[in-house]
Each structure stands twice: as C-alpha cells, then as structure tokens.
Amino acid sequence: MTAPETTSAGPNRLVVFDCDGTLVDGQGAVISAMEVAFAQYGLAAPEASLIRRSVGLSLPQAVRRLAPDSDDDAVREIVGAYKAAFRAARAAGELSEPLFTGMAELLGALVDAGYALGVATGKSDRGLEHCLDTHGIAHLFTTLQTADRHPSKPHPAMLQAALDDALARPEHAVMIGDTAYDMLMAAEAGVRAVGVAWGYHEAEELIEAGAEYVAGTVADLRTYLLP
C-alpha cells in the first residue's frame, strides 16, 4: 500500500495531519528536550503544561512564547540546544514518539479509499522523516510540509503547499490537528478543520478556532472521515 498518484483529471481528496499530538504522542520527548535546552542556557524550565501548549508552533515561535523576555540571540541558542537534545535522545535510542492506537489502520483505510495524505507540522524535515520511517508509514504520504520550509502555524503556507503537491482544491481537503493553531491555519487556507481531543488543546478551544468536529478517539475520527 502506497500513497495514491495524484492526477489533474479530477478533484483529488486530501487529508492533512498534524504530527505531534495528532499522529504520535511526542509529549515526553518534547518536554524533556525543552527542559534540557532551558537548563543549558541557565533558565528555569517552563512548566510542562506551558510546553505542551506551545506544541504545534515552529520551534523559534514556541521558545519565544516560553521565554518572552529573551532576545533573538537567546532564542537562537535555546533552539539550538533543543535540537541538540532531541538529536542526542534519537541517537541514544531514547526518543519515544508512539503512534496513537488505531492511527496506522486509519491511514491505510484512507489511502485505500483513494485519499491523498499529507503532514503539516512544526517538526523539522529530519525529525518528521525519522518519525514516519520509525513507524513504517512514510510511503503513505503524498506531501510533507515542515517548519524548515514555511512560516509557523497558523500561517497557511504549509497547507497551500500541500494542496499544490496533491493537486487538490481547498474545498476537497481537510486538516486534522490537536491545536488551535491547526484549526486557524485551515481557516486561513480555506480548508475544512477537524480537531482531535487526545492532543494538547481542549476541545472547546478547537471549536472556537474553527473546528467543524472534534473526534474523541481515533475510531471516532475514522467514522467521521469514512462514514
């Protein structure tokens, strides 16, 4: 099973997923790397709840939110320390980003139904590639968009690039995510937005930001997408 070929002959249907908090549970890895980065710079680590709420933003934007008094040089150093901590955990085999239960089956069912799949994430290219390869699902995706090549969410650039890659129109696409940033990005791109309740923002926030539906479980999401 591989991602379907896109064609300009008809309206391709596209489902774009966020990664952390939507496809995979990367909470522990993110919090640990951020705590290490702040410690190396000599700052007290932010509360875990604040770190979780920053997930979905690009890394520099997340650090600016967590350390609002830091200047640009400090932000760059903390970002560098975070990336180094993440790489060290990956090299040591200590990086845990498990797929949420039922997600692999949902992705396969969507591909079988003829949907093109994409990812729009605040991760780096390298981080996303490692994550998808680890779970053996990289071949299912037609388009991969990361913070390395785009402004931070909720800017619509990632979704606009995904639509171009998949030859899909906004009205034939849906963004699946766990944060308000994902929902707002979808609105900016003219794409439907569906939230998931197992990630980092509350269902009420997702609805307020534009979600047409918030799935409580992966099974709920499958039923909504493939009735």
Automatic annotation (TrEMBL):
One of its GO terms (biological process) is DNA repair. The keyword Hydrolase applies. One of its GO terms (cellular component) is cytosol. The keyword Hydrolase applies. It comes from the Bacteria. SUPFAM superfamilies: HAD-like. GO terms for molecular function: phosphoglycolate phosphatase activity. Keywords: Hydrolase. Gene3D superfamilies: HAD superfamily/HAD-like, Putative phosphatase, domain 2. This is HAD-IA family hydrolase. It comes from Novosphingobium aerophilum.
